[in-house]
Amino acid sequence: MSQKVEKPVLSGQRIKTRKRDEKERYDPVGFRDAIISGLDKCSNDFESISRFLDGAGNKLDYRRYGECLFDILIAGGILVPGGTLSQEGEGPCKTDACIFSTPSEINMEVMKNWEQVFIKLMRRYKYLEKIFQDEIKKILVFVKYFSEEERKKLSVMVSLWISNGSIPFNAITVLNSSYLVKDNLALDFLIEVFKCWRQERGVNSLYSAIKKSNIESLLMSFVPDTKQAQTYFRTAFKENGLEEILKLYYDQSQQVAKKELQTLLQDSLTEGKAHKEIVNELKEMAAKEEIQPHETICIIWTTVMAIPEWSKKEELVTDQAVRHLRQYVALFTAFAQTERAQLSLLLKVQEYCYSNMTFMRAFLKIVMLFYKTDVLPEQVIIKWYKQDYSVKGKMMFVDQMRQFVEWLQNAEEESDSDGSSD
After folding, report:
1. pLDDT digits (tens, 9 = 90+) for 318-348
2. What is the distance, to the nearest Å, from the Cα of residue 233 to the centroid of all Cα atoms in its chain?
């Protein structure tokens, strides 16, 4: 019977770890010291800085220490919570070859040279682009702890980085943190970014970029929520020559407010509220959001006309429209108190009838309904007929209205004649 012999074991045997399996110790201080040493030798020569950073990436692990690298290039050292520089290590913890050490008086040529340093670096090491975008958001959170001079320099660079596509415009939304907003730091920084952009690339470029990124809808979130918020907001933009951006914000906020007004009206009609109550609600909201009567009456028209399932037959839809609109005369009357509102409604009716082919022949009957119910006065109808019509379907609608307008004019002349004979 065979007996299994145990294999001999060497006591004290060591298994050697392959070099590629060794995990390198995370050493940001060592990385910082190497970068600072190289930058200090460049003597603020931008070509030398770019060459050094290009070559250093082959020896130093940019992928691992990318955040530290950008901290050094911007602030001169590694930023720690609280926005201060890390003092760890025995070597120099800060270099003057950084954005924060540029001249106190902003020199755009110098700032653009720094812009090129970053562009060349990320062009050479593409993986740094995402690291840079994330790091900028972290640095922006620290703006409270930077000096006013450093904030100004950073705002200039952020403007350049956004405009050249290095970071997205929405990166600045991290500024609307409560502790930055309450001290007006968020709005002040944002305005500095806008001012630099306008100066370097023009207000049209800034306008387009803001609109494209939809930042205008967030502008008020950078302002402390106080009773004076709107006044402070307007004043800050006007004093810094940013009226166009202010207008963009108000145009956008008006669009949002109009949608909310339309939703309010839809819900109220669905719930079957009394028209008097609906009118009061609409007036209150319109006054609060500064929506004018001529805009409100058009919203009423759009909402009311969206309710029924309209007949597909042209000969039936006219009577259907008149019956339907008669129910809502009180709503139209409440906001048809100015000539501008009356004319806006008339043009809205024309536009609707032109855009919906089955309504082409309904225009006259709808206008007559509004005339008979005192929504549209004769002088506005005559003014529309003579000069203020829309070009959309002009000939057809003017021709439809001819006999009615002639009747209005004759009735007006007879009235004037009777008055003068008295």
Report:
1. 999 999 999 999 999 999 999 999 999 999 9
2. 16
